[in-house]
Design goal:
12 strands, 5-stranded antiparallel β-sheet, about 5% helix, globular
């Protein structure tokens, strides 16, 4: 998965798959490092207008994950043949997932964390926000393109649009090149706001989100991924 770049690499630190709608890979990675994140219940809503890669979609449901931006770095081998690892916490990150499916809710995310199910004809827009200096707060976050380099110790945002085919294969997977994500309200249980983002020559999306902040079980050190492949849900 071609997701993100230096300052947001914590979001894909272990590429653990929650659900194999491509964009959902990141939710599991974030959950693994944010056990102290905010928690809510239920599913959310949102809107989207525009076209990206010739695709339009209507939001059927949405969820969010908000947690501490905790990253780890390792070096080695050490004298005993192992590795030496350190971790650091630097602000908070938030991820909002808007999908054309109606199934997304906190209870679904929490109960399906180790699922190998893949969903056909799925469209998902992921909005990611990083505040390296503290909690996620109301305000406007600028999209930083993947080739923009290190933006420094500032608030930034990113967005990705992914789709699957009628047989659960990979469809589109494009990163936003510019735009903004605006958080109008954020609490211990929800986050809401608007977005206006461009995906280069592929097109643009604009709309709103109002999503619960879900609690996801810690990813742990094991995964069911690869245990007999995935099941395609049509």
């Amino acid at each position: 998965m071609k997701f993100l770049y230096a300052v947001l690499e914590v979001l894909v630190m272990n590429e653990r798959i929650l659900m194999t709608i491509p964009v959902f890979v990141v939710v599991g990675a974030l959950a693994a490092c944010s056990s102290s994140g905010k928690t809510g219940t239920g599913g959310g809503s949102g809107s989207v207008s525009g076209t990206v890669g010739g695709t339009t979609f209507t939001v059927g449901s949405g969820v969010a994950i908000i947690g501490q931006n905790t990253s780890s770095s390792c070096f080695g081998p050490t004298a005993d043949g192992g590795e030496s690892c350190t971790s650091a916490t630097n602000g908070y990150i938030a991820q909002i997932i808007l999908a054309n499916l109606s199934i997304l809710s906190c209870s679904f995310i929490e109960s399906s964390f180790d699922s190998n199910a893949s969903y056909a004809n799925a469209d998902a827009l992921e909005l990611s926000i990083l505040n390296p200096n503290g909690d996620i707060t109301a305000g406007t976050y600028d999209i930083v393109a993947a080739d923009a380099g290190e933006p420094g110790n500032t608030n930034i945002a990113a967005a990705e649009f992914s789709t699957t085919t009628s047989t659960c294969g990979d469809g589109l997977d494009v990163m936003a090149s510019s735009g903004t994500i605006t958080v109008s309200a954020v609490s211990a249980t929800s986050i809401s706001g608007t977005y206006d983002i461009t995906f280069g020559s592929q097109g643009s999306f604009a709309g709103s989100f109002d999503s619960p902040a879900c609690a996801v079980p810690d990813a742990g050190s094991t995964s069911s991924e690869g245990d007999g492949g995935t099941t395609c849900v049509k």
